Please model this.
Amino acid sequence: MTKNIPASIIALDGPAASGKTTLGRRLADTLGYLFFDTGVMYRAITWIALQHDMDLRDEATITALAQKAQIDIRPPSKNDGRGCDVLIGDKDVTWDMRGDDVDANVSVVSAYSGVRQALSEQQRRIGLRGKVVMVGRDIGTVVLPEADIKVYLDASAEERAKRRYNEVTARGDKADYDEILKKMIERDHVDSTRAVAPLRPAEDAVIINSDKIDADKVFESVLELCK
Ligand code: DC
Model:
């Protein structure tokens, strides 16, 4: 039987700054779906750990933190480029979690199997409600392997570093392109070689390299897939 309804669970995976967030938000807006960037959960745990001077190499402590942390994701309350509000308790940490210190440490935290299990369970529960665009690294492979549509959005490290640089400077913050590129390559390496849920495309994912395709074309082709 052919399905005339649009895909209900859309999994969007790929490396940092490959354009997943821009694409995911646009898709979610167009389809009237929830946009859920799962990376914010790993960032939130890392941010809390840094705030409390926890030892990030202490897997048991960080895992316990992930199991009890109350992270709230809500629709954006400000029009400042955010896709959603990220709250820890009452505190809005949406931009704090995008800082260099979190960038430098989040890969370590997201490699811990207990952390991944705790956060993946929450992500899966939300994703299974349907009408959702889930963005991450392992949505199509681990969190929601039953997703209707799986897209793996890729781009070269240089192109992604350029985008991240533009994003940071557009907010009025200072940035160093070479440093961003170096950290991007390091993070790719940790994310794709970790033992649990490494960054890789699902076997049934549509792989799109956005180096030479503009964001509008990527959007149009993925929207077509969803319909
Ligand atoms: O997409 P991002 O840069 O905000 O992700 C932050 C980190 O979280 C990144 O190093 C990879 C990790 N992550 C993950 O391991 N699994 C996900 N589903 C989402 C993010």
Remarks:
- The longest strand covers residues 149-154.
- The pocket of 2'-deoxycytidine-5'-monophosphate is lined by residues 16, 38-39, 42-43, 106-107, 110, 136-138, 187, 191 (CB under 6 Å).
